[in-house]
Amino acid sequence: MPETRSPRSRLDTPKETRRTIVRRPAFKADALGVFAEEFARFMGTARFLTYMTMFVAVWVVWNVAAPTNARWDDYPFIFLTLILSLQASYAAPLILLAQNRQETRDKVVAEQDRQANARAHADMEFLAREVASLRMAVGEVATRDFMRSELRSLLSDLDERARGDDEDPRLA
């Protein structure tokens, strides 16, 4: 009688385990950098300064003028100081991150500018050599005026010979 065992009871087969894989949420690797740049840009605007000034003014006026039981932060405004310190502690690293990203972009642009300048310099040197060689070549080329004067002198020489040949008795 054959023995019937379940597959789990055999030693040569692994146990079936059901594991649930918890996946981390997918996000862009550069998302924090983009956020930091947008945040730094916003913090450098007059709108941000206006909002912060209005927020602090409303906070102080409310906690001074409101009824005692409606106030949440009395005179030394410790909670306001904590909020502003927390904002500053997050703002500084975000601004530095944005500056680092801008510096990296500036380095890339500077390198591209350097390469373009090097190419332009090489092109200018090549053109300067070409112009110099053309000047030297033009110096060796006979000009139209030079050719005319040479042809006139040859023509006058031929005329003189022709007149001299008429007078030569050996030819007669």
The helix-strand sequence is: HHHH
Q: Which term fits the overall shape?
A: elongated
Strand fraction: under 5%
The chain-level mean pLDDT equals 86
Instruction: Compute the CA-based radius of gyration.
Output: 47 Å
Structural class: mainly alpha
Keywords:
single chain; elongated; 172 residues; mainly alpha
Structure description:
The chain is mainly alpha-helical. 70% of the residues lie in helices and 0% in strands. The protein has helices spanning 31-43, 46-65, 78-140, 144-167. The model has no long low-confidence stretch (mean pLDDT 86). Helix 1 crosses helix 3 (78-140). The protein is built from four helices and no strands.
Task: Outline the secondary-structure elements.
Elements: H1 31-43, H2 46-65, H3 78-140, H4 144-167
In short:
The chain is mainly α. It is built from four helices and no strands. It starts with 30 loop residues before the first helix and ends in a 5-residue tail after the last helix.
